[in-house]
Amino acid sequence: MSIESALIFGAGFGTRMGDITKITPKPMIRVLNKPLIDYAIDVILSANIQNISVNLHHLPKQIEDHLSKFENIQTIHEQPNILETGGGLKNALPILGSSPVVTLNSDIIWIGSNPVGSLLKSWDPKKMDALLMLIPIQNTKEYCGQGDFYLDSDNLLTRRGNKPNAPYVYTGAQIIKTELLSNINEKSFSINLLWNKILNKKKAFGIVYDGSWIDVGHPKGIDTATKELLNNRNV
How confident is residue 53, by pLDDT bands cut at 50, 70 and 90? Predict the structure, then answer.
């Protein structure tokens, strides 16, 4: 079962960016004079996925105007209300189709192997309903959380739950089947609702990213990503 489509999440308000995102949507924030969304597009195209969709809500025209220069990128407006990650994925299904899809956050800088390419190599649709790219919490840069998942010897995922921390962070890249979205009646909801259904079926798996991962969801992340990219150029 080949993966032919990808959804980039571009609808969020970017509130952690403060005043920056009052006039600039987060996907259009520049790192080394390149919009964040272009880094996400590069990751997907380099993994040989050509059909890309981007959902929009906050300051959508800036993103849409920018994306008009690309071929095979469709935009999906979430109006009048934002639909969150799960609702955004469900809303995009008429374009994405019923096959498994890649989803990618637009506020991450990756340095190293292509995360989507690594997911595609490890994807086994016979046993997996979701395959998440993870990173050890100690290897994250500018991440402020307590971790998301545990990973067992079979690469099955379990949640942090009530524990104070977990060793692995979800990086914002995954392959996921979408059939179970039809059992979720809410219009606006987190991808966590879909994950819960897949976790209960013991079909949520993870692999670990071996490169550098920078969260560019807040202003300090811009500076860190800039330095990391410049350092990588000089290696």
Answer: very high
Q: Which long-range contacts (CB under 8 A, 24 or more apart) does 221-227 make?
A: 221/107, 221/141, 221/142, 222/29, 222/31, 224/141, 224/142, 225/31, 225/109, 225/142, 226/31, 226/32
- Report which secondary-structure segment, H or E, holds 116: helix 115-122
Tokens of 152: 């067992």
Question: CATH number of the domain that 48 lies in?
Answer: 3.90.550.10
Distance, CA of 147 to CA of 153 (rounded, Å): 18
The tokens describing 4, both together, are: 């032919």
Helix (H, G, I), strand (E, B) or coil at 194: helix
Which residues span the domain enclosing 98? 5-233
Residue that is written with structure tokens 């860190």 in the block: 224
How many domains does one find in the chain? 1
What whole-number percentage of the chain has pLDDT above 70?
Answer: 99
- E runs forming strands in the chain: 5-9, 30-31, 34-35, 51-56, 73-77, 101-105, 108-111, 130-136, 140-141, 149-151, 157-159, 168-176, 204-208, 212-215
Average pLDDT, the chain: 96
Total-model pTM: 0.96
Q: 1 pLDDT band (50/70/90 cuts)?
A: low
pLDDT in tens, 181-192: 999 999 999 999
